[in-house]
Amino acid sequence: MTQQLYLMRHGETLFNSLHRIQGASDSPLTAKGISDAQKVGQYLKAQGITFDHAYASTQERASDTLEYITKQPYERLKGLKEWNFGVFEGQSEVLNPHDDPQRHSYGDFFVQYGGESDVQVQKRMVQTLTEVMERPQHQQVLAVSHGGASFMFLRRWLDWQEVQQRVHFTNCCILQFSYANQQFTFEKTIDALH
What Pfam family is a match for this entry (predicted)? Predict the structure, then answer.
């Protein structure tokens, strides 16, 4: 049986609703974020999708989302944390730079301000999730992470044109991947809310 990874973005947070930059900093789930996470849990149950192991970022918004989806035990991993945006943390999203036209991300912009580059985020996400999938008896794995970190993981396995065509990337969406021989293959986006 092919191993499956279900990589989920956390529910809506206070900073999401206020359009604030939220990376290494944290903010709580909104009532909508909680409700949406519960709906995803109900959807997964109705579809018969279960997990033998579950993981979340060490940030509260991710672990809380997971706890609203399932009551099963889980492990928190720092490698699943959101992109660190340095001194831009908590500031208005209007301060975000334009995407690097070659990399289709923020590139190295935040490094000069004490944050991470896109490559650094991608490397730790790939390393963390590969290590998880290499653990014994990991056939159906749920990992709750963040928008920027999940996007950079996805970009490692899917080119930009395919991302634009195939991925609807919202709070509480799930990116489903198959895994074999230390390679992830994007299967589909599960958008249980629409």
Answer: His_Phos_1
